[in-house]
Amino acid sequence: MTDENRSNRLGAYISISIFVIFATVLSVIPYYAIVKFNPASIYIGALMWTPAIAAFLALKITGRTISSMPWRWGKTRYPLSAYLTPILYVSIAYGFGWALGFGDIVNGETVLNWARELGLEGKATIIILIVMIFLLGTIGFLTAAVTIFGEEIGWRGFLILELRKVLPFGAATIICGLVWSLWHWPIVLYYGGGEFIIQMTTFTITLVNMSVIMAYFTFKSQSIWPAVIFHAAHNTYIQSVVNPITTRNEQTSLWLDEFGIMLPIITTLFALYFWLAAKKEGL
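Given the sequence above, the corresponding C-alpha cells read:
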C-alpha cells in the first residue's frame, strides 16, 4: 500500500468518525423534543435533517466543499428504477401477506375516508383507490422527499461513499445499513409498541437490505437522487398506501406493517439480487 493510499484511508476513517459523532450528538435534541413535546411531526422533520448537517460539518472540518457531494442527476433510468423498486417489493410482500390471510384488502373504512377527502362519495371503490394512490404517489411522495432528502445527504450522499473508500461494496453497505438502523432505534422504540426483539430484528434487516439496494443505485448513477427517490417511495407506499388499505386481523402486526416479518424476507431477496449485480459490475 502506497503512502497516498494510507493517507486516503486514514482520511476516510476520520471523516466517518466525525460524521457519526455529529449525527449522534445532533440527534439528541430532536429526539428529546419528539418524546416531550407535541406535535411530534415537527421535530421528526428536524431529526431527519441531522445526518445532512453532520455530513456538512464533516466536509467542512476535513477541508472539502458541499459541492463535492454527488448532486448530479445522472441518467434518468436510475431514479425511475429507484422509484419502482420499493413499490414492487412492497407489493409482493403485502400480496403474499393478503393471500396467506395475514390481512385482507380492501379496508372499507379507509376507502370511505378517502372518498370523503376526495369528494368522491358514492363512486366505485376502484376509482377512489386509483385517484388516491396516484395523489399519494406524486404529491405525497414529493412531500415525503423533502425531509428524506436530509437523511439521504448524510447516509448515501456522504457515509456510504466514505465507507466504500476503505471497505468492499458488501461490507460498506451492511455497515451503513446498521448505522442507519441504529440511528432510528430510539424513535422505533418510542412509537413501535410491539414485540421488542421481533420489531428491532425485522426493522434492522429491512434497512440493511434497503441500504444494499440504494448503494447500488448511488454508485451506478454517481448521484444522491436515486436514493432520495427510493427512500421516499418506500415510506410513502408502505405508510400511506398498503398499510391503510389493509384490513387487519390478529396476525397483521406480526407479518405485515413496517415491522412485520414479510418485508425483510422479500427485501432480502431483492438485496441479494442487487448485491450480485454490484459484484458482477465491479462496484
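Strands lie at 104-105, 246-247. Try to locate this feature in the C-alpha cell string yourself.
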